[in-house]
Amino acid sequence: MLSMRLAVLELARRHHFPVNTYASLLHSASREGIGIEPKVSLQQAVYLVALLFAGLGVIFFVAANWITENPFPMFFGLELALITAAVWAARSIRRRTPLTLLGFLVIGALLAFFGQHYQSGADLWQMFAVWAALGVPLALAARSDTIWCAWLIVAMTGVTVWWRHLGLWQHDNHLTGTNLLTFALMFSMSYALFKPSQRYTGAGIWSFNLAILCSTAFVTTAGIASLFHDASDIYIAALLAVACATGLGTLHQLFDIRALSICALGMDLLIVGGFTKMGFEFNSLLVVFCISALAALVVLGITVSLILELYRNRLVGDKS
User: What is the Cα–Cα distance from 142 to 146, expressed in whole angstroms?
Assistant: First the structure.
């Protein structure tokens, strides 16, 4: 969905609206939230931050006190906190998002304590995978963009740790099916939460933009790192993955100016990295700098022009 605020600004510029009219339209646009979640008041924000710190405090407390002779009091306390947060969230509409966030963080603390105390032998990525799986019902029930943001951080961390656990970050690796699966999984999680499924998940624009940012940063970093360690096939796969994500972002149903800009920036960085790698063949830092600077200017200029033109076309299409 296009930004309502930018649309109002464009209308005011074209029709020379007076200040009062522009302020009224801007106020109305601010009430038309892009996400599913209603506008958060100061009191709700305070509750959210307070319970966020409470949940993080529980995690830090477990991390500092996981060595104990009798683990059952710790298990009982964590389970009681989880059940209390879930029941209270189900009964309180105004406190649902902060309490659900607290419950989601307590799930992570409970899994961490179990894994550290009993030494089950499970890898770290498995704990994040189970944490994300158990958090899906909470996120679906809360229908909150905030909860989906927290869930995405856990899920993306799990995928990253899994990728690192398989040794795919090492310099002597080349393109494998697991690399492609990781890149596809990152962007699939991003677009799975956007418009086509928003009516079912309750996710909003913030979780989508966060997912796109994490996915693009991961794939771009992997591509540039592999390029300078003679694994050009991973670089090409990363470039194609970011290019496909950028192409999806231009579709009408998936269009978002922020997400499209993030994907385009990642693609620009990969292209400039490729030209920089080519410049190293001349064994001259001056040549490398000139090639990199010229490539950055050209690529960035083309990208910005295309994004602005696409945005103007979308804006005109929505008005007509």
Answer: 9
